Amino acid sequence: MLPEKIKQTILDEISKTEESIEEYKEVTKPIAPDVAIGRISRMDAINNKSVAEAGLRQAQIKLKNLYQVLSQIGHKGFGICLKCNQPIPLGRILIRPQSLLCVYCAE
Hints:
Blueprint: H1 2-27, H2 39-72, H3 90-95, H4 103-106
Helix pairs in contact: 1-2
């Protein structure tokens, strides 16, 4: 039962992350120079685009980690910290299913 709950949590998080990535991709499209916005507004748009690009990169890393964790379900290494080889607490797996490290190694 528990592995199914973990798997469903991961699948739900994958779905949310894929949606976020699509939203970030929409926001990070280039701003056409002929769009009539003021100089300050253009600077704000460029700044917002940079923030969205950082969010996009983080979401892509998260998605990659989620798929990695999903592929490990049922294998010996599932739920084991990549750094210290100790078990990752179940609560952390359920809250942050993309976690590849335990709390101590992640700090």
